[in-house]
Amino acid sequence: MGRNRHLNQKKGGNLAQVQHVVLILSGKGGVGKSTLTTELALALRHSGKKVGILDVDLCGPSIPRMLSVGKPEVHQCDLGWVPVYTDAQKSLALMSIGFLLEDPDEAVVWRGPKKTALIGQFVSDVAWGELDVLLVDTPPGTSDEHLAVLENLKKQHKVDGAILITTPQAVSTGDVRREITFCKKTGLRILGIVENMSGFVCPHCSVSTPICMDTHTPSVLVANRSPVSFRLASCALFRWTQSSV
């Protein structure tokens, strides 16, 4: 039985036992992609799902710090790299370039082809095993890393779609519009848009105060008919993933 599963996994690649793949995107940096990825992964794990996070932000890997993993050694097995697990039950698996750097403050000064090659290895050579959801934390933009991860994922697995992150400012929603165009051009389904940093909740009186007086997110939604959540905790995408896996 174990031998047959091993052969089936080799035949279907290391994503053969992954049920769903979701990308976390935004054209803007600093809007909370890694935060959303972490919150979503923890919420799914809390609901009893097995979750993986693939961090393809090669120049600014945040996932190891977000989950307080430190710098564990990445081991190899017959199927490739073994992901780093955050718990003994192996319910949350991680892979990031942050685990491969000798110095966490070391800058990754790479040209496009070298980035593309490592992302290809991350997609094909990490032995994820059985996962309900694989979340892919991406860097800002619509360039080499995004094309590389999409192309490599589609060779092995259906990509369920993308969650787009924005903040209320016009400068952020403008970049998200370009990310929406990227999704349309690459045939990537938009599962929804999350507006982060919508307001500040006072720890004393619990009153929510908008950080920006005017939000520009609704104009993006009207143009693209995308669902939106203004609170991460009540995000419709949590309901989508929990009902789909």
UniProtKB/TrEMBL annotation:
- Name its GO BP terms in alphabetical order: iron-sulfur cluster assembly
Which Gene3D superfamilies does this entry report, sorted A to Z?
A: P-loop containing nucleotide triphosphate hydrolases
Show the GO MF annotations: 4 iron, 4 sulfur cluster binding; ATP binding; ATP-dependent FeS chaperone activity; metal ion binding
| SUPFAM superfamilies, A to Z | P-loop containing nucleoside triphosphate hydrolases
Q: Which of UniProt's keywords are assigned here? A: 4Fe-4S, ATP-binding, Iron, Iron-sulfur, Metal-binding, Nucleotide-binding
Q: Which InterPro entries match?
A: Mrp-like_CS, Mrp/NBP35_ATP-bd, P-loop_NTPase, YlxH/NBP35
Q: Pull one GO CC term from this UniProt entry.
A: cytosol
Name-wise, this protein is: NUBP iron-sulfur cluster assembly factor 2, cytosolic
Q: Which organism is it from?
A: Oncorhynchus mykiss (Rainbow trout)
Its lineage reads: Eukaryota, Metazoa, Chordata, Craniata, Vertebrata
The gene designation is nubp2
